[in-house]
Amino acid sequence: MIKQLFTRLSEVWPAVERIARAEGVVRIGASDLDDTHSGLFDEWIEHGHHATMRYLEKSASIRRHPEGRFPWAKSAVVILVPYASTRPDAPPGALSNHLARYALGDDYHEVLDGILRKIETAAAPHGKTWRYVDTGPLSDRSLATQAGLGWIAKNAMLINEEIGSYTFIGTLLTSLENDIAPDPVADRCGTCTRCLDACPTDAILPNRTVASDICISYATIEHRGPLPDITLAGNAFGCDICQEVCPWNNSPAATHLSFAPRDEYRATPITDLLRYEQSDFSTLFRKSAVKRARLAGMQRNVAALTEEESRGMLKP
């Protein structure tokens, strides 16, 4: 018996959607690979807003012309998976009060890659596939907008009208023809400027990009060496301020089980990190995105927060 090979994404779509729903995916769509935001990205790079993230500059040509690296790719399956939209109750000074919500649970790279692997079982027998979870030279937010999953907001986040922006994006490239037509998505930011007004470092730019060199998330996660001369506003890893004030986050989706806030973060005073050895750090942040900042980076950040506290600036 000869196994049927499909050539169009719609032919495997029912199986893709069934697997995605079973794995906790809240929204799924399909996109072509052309990046409609590549011009804005080039402008962002040209102005040096990527700071020390030179790898973004090196991969810019692939973002503009993905067919150079993926000559076989014809479509992208894009998924949204929700993370915690609120923080758990915790004592003042608890670690959980100072981590971005997306880092309160398991490492999203591993979780979404696992989900994409399962979705891949429906498409891979019919051609080539490649998985990306915030690690490749393509813009996952741009592909998500083209898949009809939301719009890129003034704070540069992807917002879905029904569930807001507290979601991770995963992408599966396939060699199947994209014949899944997305519903059109309107830009619903309107005249609202709450995210720009709330950003304590004025890192959000008027063209819906972020100046990394003065962004708290960049400073606490990606930046190596002494911190830039900016306030951390109580953040030790990442920052949610622009999402906290966004009115589209009033009805978020239920948290995926993998991203439920860890109890040990509630029970650990943030200042404990200052005396940690590498083994302590590795144990506490096992399978956590916080490992990206490394022990030295987190100790640097906590020391800065301690200084802010001494000046009456640290949030509870």
- What order do the SSEs take from the amino end to the carboxyl end, as H and E? HEHHHEHEHEEEHHHHHH
Strands, total number = 6
| Whole-number count of domains | 1
Specify the overall morphology: globular
**Low-pLDDT residue spans:** none
| Percent in strands | 5-15%
| Average predicted confidence as pLDDT | 93
Radius of gyration, rounded? Answer: 20 Å
Q: Helix fraction?
A: 25-40%
The secondary-structure class comes to alpha+beta
Number of helices: 12
Major sheet description: 4 strands, antiparallel
Amino-to-carboxy terminus distance: 65 Å
Strand order of the largest sheet: 1-2-6-3
Q: What are the key terms here?
A:
two-stranded antiparallel sheet; globular; alpha+beta; 12 helices; 30% helix; 316 residues; 4-stranded antiparallel beta sheet
